[in-house]
Amino acid sequence: MELFPREPAVTNAPRRDAPLAERMRPRTLEEFEGQAHLLGESGPLGPVLAAKGRLPSCIFWGPPGSGKTTLARLLTERAGLRFAAVSAVLSGVKDLREEIARAEDERRRGVCTALFIDEIHRFNKAQQDALLPCVERGTVVLLGATTENPSFEVIPALRSRCRIFTLRALDREALSGIVRRALDDRERGLGELGRSLSPEALDLIVRFAQGDARRALGLLESAAERADGEIGRDQVAAAFESRLPDYDKGGEAHYDVISAFIKSLRGSDPDAAVYWLARMLEGGEEPRFIARRLMIFASEDVGNADPNGLVVAVTAAEAFDRVGLPEGKLILSQATTYLACAPKSNASMLAIAAASEAAKEHGALPVPNHLRNAPTELLRELGYSKGYRYPHDHPSHFVREQYLPDALSGARFYEPSDQGQERDIADRQRERWKSEPTPEK
User: How confident is the model at residue 11 (pLDDT cuts 50, 70, 90)?
Assistant: First the structure.
């Protein structure tokens, strides 16, 4: 006995020349492979599907190719709602307002709209804030899809108004079923080509796909073009090698490419740095992650050799949040090339590392009395703040003083390099400290 009534097939079928993955997009829940933990009889989506005509706002979180968009479409159709889609990569607040205005018009005619936002994590706070009123009023049912953890990438106010469903990477059984259906389907798939698939080729497709149905179907389609009859292991291997390997945000490639990016910046090679930047962006890396890395790099590897480096990195991060993709690539590229060409110094990084070691080794050393705050008469009688000399009352606004605890007197943590503006800092500090006599104890 079926838990849910069979649904009518989707009528707006993709064109015959569309990619196989698009043509084979499931038209009913019966065709939907995987995610049994959500769609099974005891799964959390059971009550949602059973209540025909009602659909809560939802966020679907899962890896690429796990079925987030398809599931959103099928749930919308099951509930009898109008489906409207917006891409967070290509759209801004203006596009959102237009879709919401249309949803309000449809609502007056008795039609409820499900607004699907692909890659909702790419919307900045202002864009996500713009969704709140229409979700609260019930103008739209919000359906968001994200590959990033909603706890970090979706604002709390919006998150609290949505149910969050976690999709998993497709297992071997689900991927095998998807590939076989596409191979046999004469209407939408490759059935009319008369191709067969060897067990070794199927195994290779499943392994290369790494839980991603879209990737599996792309490999199958490419391999089928190389075969005359049976699709074998060699055709699948050739299809895989002809495609640019995907950038795996959660795997080894992620760490290798970001490592190459940072090392190219540190090595002052703007061409290599911007190449690795492009690899990350084209592979779907979260741009805010890249912006955070640029801000860290600006302090860790450029530092006071060029203090503007941090200004550029922070400004780039803020500007990207306002602009978004695709134009935001220009902003990240500008920051990347600037930092790659900037003079380099890790003196600030070494300074905090050395100071942290001293703090851990010596514990909570007492603050010298002359540096302590003395807001009351009693504290002043105890000698707090006594003997403190105000630097602005002295020539060059400098006076030699002991600012460290007695146990660390004379310690040096920050050693300015001879690079860029830090060379001037080093010269200035030397002049200051040699011109002033040591204070008397």
Answer: very low
Q: Give me the sign of the Cα torsion angle 338, 344, 348, 350.
A: positive
Structural domain that includes position 277: 252-341
Whether the Cβ atoms of residue 360 and residue 157 lie closer than 8 Å to each other = no
**Which of 194, 211, 241 is the last residue in one of the domains?**
241
pTM higher than the cut 0.90: no
Residue type, 364: A
The C-alpha angle 183, 178, 243, rounded to 5 degrees, equals: 80
**Tell me, what's the pLDDT at 378?**
67
Distance CA 143, CA 136 (A): 14
DSSP 351-384: HHHHHHHHHHHH-SPPPPGGGS---SHHHHHTTT
Residue 142 lies in a domain: yes
Number of compact structural domains in the chain? 4
DSSP E strand stretches across 32-171: 58-61, 82-87, 113-118, 140-146, 163-166
Longest Cα pair distance anywhere in the chain, in angstroms?
A: 97
Query: What's the token pair of residue 435?
Result: 């011109």
Which CATH number belongs to the domain containing residue 152 in this structure?
Answer: 3.40.50.300
**First and final CA of the chain: distance in angstroms?**
91
**pLDDT attached to residue 410:** 80
Task: Answer for the pair 283, 215: CB distance below 8 angstroms, yes or no.
Answer: no
Specify the amino acid at residue 233: R
Per residue in 372-394, is it b (16+ CB within 10 Å) or e — as a string?
eebeeeeeeeeebeeeeeeeeee
* Distance between CA atoms of residues 274 and 280, nearest Å: 10
pLDDT tens-digit profile of 155-182? 899 999 999 999 998 999 999 999 999 9
For residue 9, being part of any structural domain is answered with: no
Give Cα 62 to chain centroid, integer Å. 13
**pLDDT tens per residue, range 187-203:** 888 888 888 999 999 99
- Do 285 and 304 lie in one domain? The reply is yes
Query: Can you tell me whether residue 200 is helix, strand or coil?
Result: helix
Among 114-123, 304-313, 385-394, the least confident range: 385-394
- CB atoms < 10 A from the CB of 223, how many? 25
Short-list 254, 273, 292, 256, CA closest to 339: 273
The pLDDT of residue 236 is above 50: yes
